[in-house]
């Protein structure tokens, strides 16, 4: 055996989960999972064969026959156990996440925690999957609804929240009585797989949760497979639009949460230090790789004078490997992502924006091979520029100015995306005006990243979302169930029959 083959064998492989078994793929196509801070190869992930993917769907279809009838309390108890296991293992989960994705350890723990909240929500399924009943809608007639599971559902997840977003999907789908096929991001599947192992340990039965790995082929199989009834997707707008069109043309339900270009408005009456801190955290935290990051800030009126202080504060953020104490910004996920971000910064300059803070090529001691880019700030940005139009998905902040709040609102509503937004002000009237007029799904008022807790549903508008119903909260119960409406009447044995009723009226 050659030395190269020996090294290959030493690298762990990511398994598929089919019918309750973690199995090695027989594929010939593999991709490396790489630590973005060091370039160390952590694992190899397979691109599953058609046969393996079909076996995963078949196993989910088979398991649905019994899982759909499993008592709601049994389902809830599995998720009670699951939330406990996630809590007990949160440090390990965060460490796996940081190693493969790059975000800092505290942020990785936050990623797991926001997913854990959805697992807790799934544990309360008994209170969520309730039908309605109207007594005596006609003489002796009652009408009620059942919320019944759909069958096999599938989820396709992005790289930037490899814990939270899989946990947005399979716990709620399974808790409502469906079975599931998950396709994690091929860039960082390791923490997702550890969460899947814990779900199995918590008692999710064989075949109820299955995992396939891959890229385009896996996604297309999910969209086309006749036994898959609903598809949840989170990722870029380009891929999400493709998934939505293909899945819905094949008669499936689909919810696609997609790309973003979130703006914050800063009014001059805002609490200055709070606002600057919040802007920096939301623009540069997770190296700008959050769909709810704030890559655009609109300074209104005299707030424009805060720019020098914002830039000075940005310089104080610590760039380092995510495991280093005090690190504020870790590496971006891949060399390709770094090249793309660097290319967009060059483009910003060439199109006339003013680069007031250049974060390229930072020297990061101990992580010389990492994919680092530090806080980068552009001013004099116009809405025609590529850096404004495209989602950069890196720590690059575009500053725009507006004379009035209404001008700023108009700017945001003219952008095609509608994922998240925020306003910083101490004026209740201004905040309320903003809340009413803005056409964006998630709105923060002095809250920079207003991701809703699972009592509510994640939303999004315009180019950021396709499908009516969002992940978690009340909406996802409707997404993962079919409403059946039952109208019933019972006759005693001695009930006297009247004339034949040829009308549609219930009497
Ligand atoms: P991505 O679209 O590249 O990948 C998402 C999934 O699609 C992955 O599982 C990937 O394997 C698959 N995929 C990639 N290219 C494909 C193709 N050509 N055909 C079919 N499938 C393909 O997204 P990403 O880079 O992993 O994640 C970042 C994006 O996700 C950003 O645009 C971000 O805004 C978005 N995002 C949105 C939300 C939200 O809730 N709106 C949340 C997180 C991330």
TrEMBL record:
Keywords tagged on the record:
NAD, Oxidoreductase
Q: Which domain of life is it from?
A: Bacteria
Annotated ranges, domain Aldehyde dehydrogenase: 22-486
Q: Name one Pfam family in it.
A: Aldedh
GO terms of biological process kind: L-valine catabolic process; thymine catabolic process
- Decide whether keyword Oxidoreductase is in the record: yes
- Is Plastid included in the keywords of this UniProt record? no
Q: Which GO terms describe its molecular function?
A: methylmalonate-semialdehyde dehydrogenase (acylating, NAD) activity
Q: What are the EC numbers? A: 1.2.1.27
PANTHER family on file: MALONATE-SEMIALDEHYDE DEHYDROGENASE, METHYLMALONATE-SEMIALDEHYDE DEHYDROGENASE [ACYLATING], MITOCHONDRIAL
Q: Which NCBIfam families match?
A: MMSDH (TIGR01722)
* Family (UniProt): Belongs to the aldehyde dehydrogenase family.
According to UniProt, the name of this protein is methylmalonate-semialdehyde dehydrogenase (CoA acylating)
This protein's species is Pseudomonas fluorescens
Name of the coding gene: mmsA_1
């Amino acid at each position: 055996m050659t030395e190269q083959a020996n090294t290959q064998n030493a690298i762990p492989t990511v398994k598929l989960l089919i019918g309750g078994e973690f199995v090695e793929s027989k594929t010939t196509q593999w991709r490396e999972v790489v630590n973005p801070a060091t370039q160390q190869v952590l694992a190899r992930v397979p691109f599953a064969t058609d046969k393996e993917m079909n076996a995963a769907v078949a196993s989910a279809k088979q398991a649905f026959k019994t899982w759909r009838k499993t008592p709601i309390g049994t389902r809830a108890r599995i998720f009670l156990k699951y939330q406990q296991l996630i809590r007990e293992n949160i440090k390990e989960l965060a460490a796996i996440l940081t190693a493969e994705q790059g975000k800092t350890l505290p942020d990785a723990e936050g990623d797991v925690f926001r997913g854990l909240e959805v697992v807790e929500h799934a544990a309360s399924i008994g209170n969520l999957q309730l039908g309605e009943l109207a007594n005596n809608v006609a003489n002796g007639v009652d009408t009620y609804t059942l919320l019944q599971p759909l069958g096999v559902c599938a989820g396709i997840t992005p790289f930037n929240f490899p814990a939270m977003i899989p946990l947005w999907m399979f716990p709620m789908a399974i808790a409502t009585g469906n079975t599931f096929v998950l396709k994690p991001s091929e860039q960082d599947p390791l923490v997702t797989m550890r969460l899947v192992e814990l779900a199995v340990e918590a008692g999710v039965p064989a075949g109820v949760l299955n995992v396939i790995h891959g890229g385009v082929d896996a996604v297309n199989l999910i969209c086309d497979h006749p036994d898959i009834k609903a598809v949840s997707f989170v990722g870029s707008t380009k891929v999400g639009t493709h998934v939505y069109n293909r899945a819905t043309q094949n008669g499936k339900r689909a919810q696609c949460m997609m790309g973003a270009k979130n703006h914050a408005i800063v009014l001059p009456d805002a609490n200055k230090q709070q606002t600057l801190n919040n802007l920096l955290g939301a623009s540069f935290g997770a190296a700008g790789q959050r769909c709810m990051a704030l890559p655009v800030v609109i300074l209104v009126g005299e707030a424009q004078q805060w720019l020098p202080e914002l830039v000075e504060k940005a310089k104080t953020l610590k760039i380092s490997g995510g495991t280093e104490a005090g690190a504020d910004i870790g590496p971006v996920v891949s060399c390709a992502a770094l090249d793309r971000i660097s290319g967009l910064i060059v483009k910003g300059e060439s199109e006339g924006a003013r680069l007031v803070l250049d974060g390229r090529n930072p020297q990061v001691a101990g992580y010389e091979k990492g994919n680092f880019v530090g806080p980068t700030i552009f001013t004099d940005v116009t809405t025609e520029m590529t850096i404004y139009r495209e989602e950069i998905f890196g720590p690059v902040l575009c500053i725009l100015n507006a004379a009035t709040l209404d001008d700023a609102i108009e700017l945001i509503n003219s952008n095609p995306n509608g994922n998240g937004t925020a306003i910083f002000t101490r004026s209740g009237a201004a905040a309320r005006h903003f809340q009413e007029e803005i056409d964006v799904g998630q709105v923060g008022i002095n809250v920079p990243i207003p991701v809703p807790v699972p009592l509510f549903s994640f939303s999004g508008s315009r180019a950021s979302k396709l499908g009516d119903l969002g992940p978690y909260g009340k909406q996802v119960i409707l997404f993962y169930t079919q409403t059946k409406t039952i109208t019933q009447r019972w006759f005693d044995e001695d009930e006297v029959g009247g004339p034949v009723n040829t009308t549609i009226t219930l009497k």
